[in-house]
Automatic annotation (TrEMBL):
It comes from Acer yangbiense. GO terms for biological process: RNA modification. The keyword DNA repair does not apply. This is DYW domain-containing protein. PPR repeats lie at residues 46-80, 147-181. InterPro entries: PPR_At4g14850-like_plant (IPR046960), PPR_rpt (IPR002885), TPR-like_helical_dom_sf (IPR011990). Keywords: Repeat. One of its GO terms (molecular function) is RNA binding.
Length: 447
């Protein structure tokens, strides 16, 4: 009888393991519906079965489905473990679900898993991503002795919230500083809102070299070059360029674009072109940077001027490159690239006064974006420039989500007489027009 029980148990375990393998196989291919069907058909599910399905939903960006499955798991009286907690906290961080995340935090405290490294790090990551920096600090102070990963996570949180003085104080308290932490603080100063942020970044870089604690990597050099770019310090940038050549990072795709932008900003186009010409296979970033520099400085090596027709031809190449993406299910990434390109194309139509093409592109943008305020403002400015002498008002009517929006473009004054008229929409009246105009202009030119 005992041997029969052992045999039955072994059979059940084998079935669970094989089913988990099947779920993993299907979900890796993006076949989440099939994986979920296999999961739902399991007579008995282990914690690993739940975790596999939850984590696969998360990896494919199905955060709501992942969170819903955790709720079902908890309602089924299955005990959540450290893997479950770390995954669901990361999901809450992505969704910025503060309420759900705090409920999970309560479960973590009751279960005693807060001392586990990845759970503690996920907790801090969750509060950091929700910009609850005080809660993140509390988690850090409670667990920092037991969890070395929290130091780097807390530093990233301070930088993310632009609390650079707190980030520097924490950096000085760190028991061990690796190149990632040095680089994170340097790049934080470069991108910060502090007036002297870039100068502090360069000072920190000099200290990093003198201390000899770590070796610079390509990300460090990229941040420093961009800092030199913002400050416009040509001598310092050239010195950094010499250092990265010695370290063998000159041909790194990340640094190439930064170097070209730096030399273009300092109006040393020939040096930027030399950096570009030394690259065997320049990437998109490097090519975009050198083209922008040549156009802005009207360099003689630019033998032709690109116009809207250039972008239209490039659009066909972009469309062809998107086919493999939709065939492999990367629809979100495809949509993101298309809408960014269409907005750039609309700007080109405005610049080159191609009104007919601008109308076509704008309508495509309205199909992607339910509130394309920047597109409306670009169109309005477009009409004004084309009909500058007529002082006439042209009305465009676009239907978006069964809501009729009227855009009025008057050419008599600049911006102040331009406002979308929303009087036909039941939730708007004429008093809302000045507010909407300010909102539109802030959206278009303030971001």
């Amino acid at each position: 009888m005992y041997s029969t029980y052992n045999g039955t148990l072994k059979t059940h375990l084998t079935e669970i393991i094989s089913t988990n393998v099947g779920i993993t196989k299907h979900s890796k291919k993006g076949q989440l519906d099939i994986a979920r069907y296999v999961f739902d058909q399991m007579p008995k599910r282990s914690v690993n079965s739940w975790n596999t399905m939850i984590s696969r939903y998360s990896k494919w960006g199905k955060f709501n489905e992942s969170l819903s499955l955790v709720s079902i798991m908890h309602g089924s009286y299955v005990k959540l473990n450290e893997t479950t907690f770390s995954t669901v906290l990361s999901v809450c961080a992505q969704l910025k679900c503060l309420i759900n995340g705090k409920q999970i935090h309560d479960l973590v405290l009751k279960s005693g898993y807060e001392s586990f490294e990845f759970v503690g790090s996920s907790l801090l990551y969750f509060y950091r991503n929700c910009f609850e920096i005080e809660e993140a600090k509390r988690v850090f102070e409670e667990l920092r002795e037991e969890n070395g990963l929290l130091w780097s996570a807390m530093l990233v949180g301070y930088v993310q919230c632009n609390m650079m003085s707190d980030a520097f104080d924490l950096f000085m308290r760190m028991p061990r500083r690796d190149v990632v932490m040095w680089t994170k603080l340097i790049s934080g100063y470069v991108t910060s809102e502090d007036v002297d942020g870039c100068e502090k970044a360069l000072e920190l870089f000099r200290w990093m070299i003198q201390s000899g604690e770590v070796m610079n990597d390509e990300f460090t050099f990229d941040a420093v070059v961009r800092g030199c770019d913002r400050l416009g310090v040509l001598h310092e940038g050239r010195a950094v360029h010499g250092m990265l050549i010695k370290c063998g990072y000159e041909f790194d795709h990340l640094i190439r674009g930064a170097l070209i932008e730096f030399y273009c900003s300092c109006e040393h186009i020939n040096e930027a072109k030399r950096v570009y010409d030394r690259v065997a296979n320049p990437g998109l970033d490097a090519s975009s940077s050198i083209i922008s520099g040549l156009i802005l400085k009207k360099h003689p090596s630019l033998t032709c001027t690109p116009n809207v027709e250039t972008l239209l031809k490039r659009k066909h190449h972009l469309t062809a490159s998107l086919h493999p993406m939709w065939r492999h299910g990367q629809l979100l990434l495809m949509d993101m690239r298309v809408i960014l390109f269409e907005r750039a194309l609309l700007g080109a139509c405005w610049f080159w006064m191609n009104m007919e093409e601008g109308k076509k592109v704008a309508k495509k943008i309205f199909g992607f974006d339910p509130k394309p305020v920047s597109a409306y403002v670009t169109l309005i400015e477009h009409i004004r420039n084309i009909e500058e002498d007529t002082h006439e008002e042209e009305i465009f009517v676009f239907e978006q989500n069964s809501c009729l929006v009227l855009c009025h473009a008057s050419t008599s004054t600049r911006y102040h007489s331009t406002a979308p008229s929303l009087t036909r929409h039941r939730s708007w009246d004429s008093q809302d027009v000045p507010f909407f105009r300010r909102l539109a202009l802030n959206y278009c030119f303030g971001q």
